[in-house]
Amino acid sequence: LQVLAYNRHTYETVAQLLIITVVPAPGGEPPYQGEFLVGNRNVEELLPVAAQEIFLGATAGVWEQDDLHVINVTSALDRGGRVPLPIEGRKEGVYVKVGSRGGFSPCLASAASSQSRFRCSLGQQPLASCYDTFAPHFTIRWCNLTLLQVWPSPTSPGPVWGSGVLEEGGDFQPPTEAPPRDLLPGYLVTLLVPLAVATLLCLLLGHLMCCRREGV
Predict the structure, then answer these.
(1) From what superkingdom does this record's organism come (predicted)?
(2) CB 135: neighbour CB atoms within 10 A?
């Protein structure tokens, strides 16, 4: 990945090449995933590892699991959010997806239930039966909480490669044989039809120019 930046005042450019190696997780994708919308943060504030550790510690208080890790961090502007006004220190918002191999806690299940969604549609507070361990560092929009349960997809077997050497038993025989075709009729039609049309046009043009002249 090549990052190109420039100075707005001097128009001086700087290029940097980043090598990113994507390695699959040792244990595969976690089956339980939760996505939280942090309303009082920008995306660059949650990219450092130290900030993610603090967020995971707060998440463990409501998830009641110890094997949590961050899967993805996305700006709310990439999800259709509006650019905040430059007043009162407003932030753009960040979606943080966290994964675990343990199930969801009753607190998270109640916050993402249909009753909680209905209360959010009425402008009321969602159902959250536990203490909010995110406060005061992170402001979570509980109405935007999304819980996912990912099931492992079966992998189809790949192709079986042979040795690359033709087995004994004679020469290679093609699967089908092309029958002989007579190309003479097509050749005559392609040649004679344009020749006949050109001859008729020449006779017609000669008749108009030679036999239709004045005094002839």
Answers:
(1) Eukaryota
(2) 10
